[in-house]
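Quick note —
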Amino acid sequence: MKLGAPLATVLSLSLLLLAGCGGSDQPYASGLDSSKTVSSYTQSDAEKFCNSEASFVNGRYSKARRCVLNSAGTLTSNCSASEADLQAACKSDYDTCMADPTSVEDLDPSQCIATLPGTTCQATTADLNACVNDMTSALDAILASTPGCSAFTASACSSLKTMLQSGIQPCPTLKATCPEVVSALD
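Predicted structure written out below.
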């Protein structure tokens, strides 16, 4: 069972952005001057921000949680399956994901590093920090709504499908003013 294109896009962007749960619940802070505008970032600033974002995200989410989310997300294309079939398929997908070392990837800071220096974006570091926190909050809400495979029911499937179809919409202001920067963060 595979996700439809819109669900797959939402889920894959989320997984790449927020590599499943296991680390700290502390908010993200890059360590850069919060009032500094992105348009004034040097190469060193971009590297510091992007490397710290990747480290934060990769440390926050474990492979096990990413695999649970991946498995549950895959199943949302067939919420009408029997509970036993949903749970068996979820466990099979999860086990396959956990066994495959390439099944889920860590966030790579290279696109972020390549995008931030030279942008005309007038957002501040505080805006970027808030966006990373918005994104982690959005994924955390999905993860909190995703049961383990043994509890994956048609009702849970339908709820998760509705949540995924509504899309992850963090950082709306930053997306409107600096879309290239938001794209670089995920």
